[in-house]
């Protein structure tokens, strides 16, 4: 074959000589014709919204970036508008008052969840067609209400102190990690420090077990990457059945020709489809694998009379009748294992911002000093320092790391402002835009912790009662995130220790530091000094806005005080490690298949 031929000539040559390629091209043309002339997005909701194109609707417009696309349309169409996402019709809520009218005042109608082919199919069902999805991503049912009641009892603020010994060990480890980073004298990204602390706490308290470093890294990495499978408006075949059918047909016809197409650079579309499915299966394999192993270990410890408090263990002890099936146990476990992810994301964003705001660092440090009189703060003594708490609340509002919340689906027909929204419609609350609603927040584009202090609740120009959620990063109304008490507690503890012991300064990442960025997908670039919530995210269409890598150089404020704390800190609380003749920690090789371990 003459490889010097032009691409059109090459296709003509292949078509004339290979019936399979001819069939492939004919199939693609047929799918395109059917798509354009016979497929129109649904239009049941009589709301304004941008015009789309046949078959695809507004899918490609969304792919330009969720936050900016929706912000532009909000200016044109108001606080609630309609989108067509392939075969799905979506209602987008963009204002705080819109959330109040829907998720809160008519919560029963908005309490279900949509299903997506990639998440609920390729990912959640990859290993087992009966495998459970997480509670938070499942359509509403009385069974889901039962599960939420069970987990709410284990995630409440009143319950959390019984797990302090697990959290305390993680905070001690965090300060050790930060101390080692400071000793290096070079800027490092702190994502690993924060995510493995927050997700590590979630896993520890869930199973009542201490995990080694490899397991902690695995659980954190899998949960961050698995969440990316839940993006809205991508991939296209998740929303357009004809595209999905066309891809399947094209793959069936073209797959035998991959050995020909790949050297010619014509197989990338096939590889992307295969790789997406394989990656989803790999992530699910890892998640199911370690959760099953951890549940098995937990049951063995409970049978042996182990009294260690844990969320799953305490739940099992309270259910003597054993009413949960293995799949139900797995559903509960996968729901809570990575519940510290959003805290780690928010801390990574905020750390990069504080590193260029020494004024905020000093204000925080002096606020801690004022409360604790020069002593080290107790990370378990949550919410004592108002400014630290305000920093956390403002980070949740400003960065809005869960950009489009957790999508809802109408459970029944509902009328909002005279507009009928039928049952089964996808409903998305646009967290990023709602968190910048000028009716709710003054100076919405500015990072201002003071909006949450001294009687203020969202606005600096007026004092008002603390009514409603401060921001939409964790949802609202029914199906709100059950882990909010733990999320807030972890965020506060990490932040108060970081700002008490260390000063932060931005600096470039050298080659070694860049290679150690966690997760490594964030190393595609370094965040600007502005730390812009949109421009400095890894992907404009990720469901959770992961920040680009950020080099932070740490300087210890008082080396002697830090050394004393690391040597003796908080031993009087009996929260740290004690000598144990039996090492009960679980290690990576005990819970994960060797083929999966090689990827982490």
TrEMBL record:
It holds the Pfam family p450. The keyword Repeat does not apply. The chain crosses the membrane at residues 20-40. Heme binds at residue 481. Pathway: Secondary metabolite biosynthesis. Gene3D superfamilies: Cytochrome P450. Its cofactor is heme. Keywords: Heme, Iron, Membrane, Metal-binding, Monooxygenase, Oxidoreductase, Transmembrane, Transmembrane helix. GO terms for molecular function: heme binding; iron ion binding; monooxygenase activity; oxidoreductase activity, acting on paired donors, with incorporation or reduction of molecular oxygen. Belongs to the cytochrome P450 family. This is Cytochrome P450 phenylacetate 2-hydroxylase.
């Amino acid at each position: 074959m003459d490889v010097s031929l032009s691409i059109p000539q090459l296709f003509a040559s292949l078509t004339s000589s290979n019936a399979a390629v001819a069939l492939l091209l004919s199939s693609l043309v047929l799918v395109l014709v059917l798509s354009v002339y016979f497929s129109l997005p649904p239009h049941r909701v009589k709301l304004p919204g941008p015009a789309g194109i046949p078959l695809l609707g507004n899918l490609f417009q969304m792919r330009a970036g969720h936050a900016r696309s929706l912000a532009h349309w909000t200016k044109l169409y108001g606080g609630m508008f309609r989108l067509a996402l392939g075969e799905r019709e979506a209602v987008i809520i963009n204002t705080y008052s819109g959330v109040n009218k829907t998720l809160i005042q008519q919560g029963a109608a908005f309490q279900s969840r949509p299903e997506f082919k990639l998440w609920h199919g390729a990912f959640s069902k990859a290993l087992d067609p009966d495998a459970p999805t997480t509670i938070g991503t499942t359509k509403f049912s009385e069974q889901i209400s039962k599960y939420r009641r069970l987990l709410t009892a284990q995630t409440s603020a009143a319950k959390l102190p019984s797990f302090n010994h697990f959290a305390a060990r993680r905070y001690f480890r965090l300060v050790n990690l930060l101390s080692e980073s400071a000793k290096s004298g070079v800027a490092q990204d702190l994502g690993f420090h924060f995510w493995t602390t927050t997700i590590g706490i979630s896993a520890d308290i869930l199973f009542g077990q201490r995990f080694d470093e490899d397991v902690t890294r695995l659980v954190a990495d899998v949960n961050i990457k698995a969440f990316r499978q839940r993006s809205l408006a991508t991939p296209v075949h998740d929303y357009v059945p004809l595209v999905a059918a066309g891809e399947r047909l094209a793959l069936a016809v073209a797959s035998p020709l991959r050995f020909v197409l790949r050297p010619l650079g014509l197989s990338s579309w096939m590889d992307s489809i295969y790789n997406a499915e394989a990656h989803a299966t790999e992530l699910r394999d890892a998640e199911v694998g370690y959760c099953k192993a951890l549940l098995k270990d937990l049951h063995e410890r409970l049978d042996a009379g182990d009294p260690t408090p844990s969320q799953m263990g305490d739940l099992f002890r309270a259910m003597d009748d054993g009413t949960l099936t293995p799949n139900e146990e797995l559903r509960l476990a996968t729901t809570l294992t990575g519940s510290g992810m959003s805290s780690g994301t928010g801390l990574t964003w905020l750390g990069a911002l504080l590193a260029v705001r020494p004024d905020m660092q000093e204000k925080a440090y002096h606020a801690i000093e004022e409360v604790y009189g020069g002593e080290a703060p107790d990370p378990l003594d949550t919410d004592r320092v108002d400014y630290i708490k305000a920093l956390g609340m403002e980070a949740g509002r400003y960065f809005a790391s869960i950009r489009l919340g957790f999508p809802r689906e109408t459970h029944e027909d509902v009328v909002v402002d005279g507009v009928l929204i039928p049952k089964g419609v996808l409903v998305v609350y646009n967290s990023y835009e709602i968190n910048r609603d000028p009716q709710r927040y003054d100076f919405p584009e500015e990072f201002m912790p003071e909006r949450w202090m001294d009687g203020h609740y969202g606005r600096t120009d007026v004092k008002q009662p603390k009514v409603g959620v401060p921001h939409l990063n964790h949802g609202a109304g029914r199906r709100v995130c059950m882990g909010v008490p733990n999320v807030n507690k972890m965020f506060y503890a990490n932040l108060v220790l970081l700002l008490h012991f260390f000063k932060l300064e931005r600096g470039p990442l050298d080659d070694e530091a860049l290679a150690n960025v966690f997760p490594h997908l964030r190393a595609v670039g370094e965040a600007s000094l502005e730390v812009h919530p949109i421009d400095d995210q890894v992907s404009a269409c990720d469901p959770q806005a992961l920040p680009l890598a950020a080099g932070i150089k740490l300087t210890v404020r008082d080396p002697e005080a830090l050394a004393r704390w690391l040597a003796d800190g908080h031993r009087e609380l009996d929260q740290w490690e004690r000598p144990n003749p039996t090492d009960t920690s679980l290690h990576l090789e005990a819970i994960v298949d060797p083929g999966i371990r090689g990827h982490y």
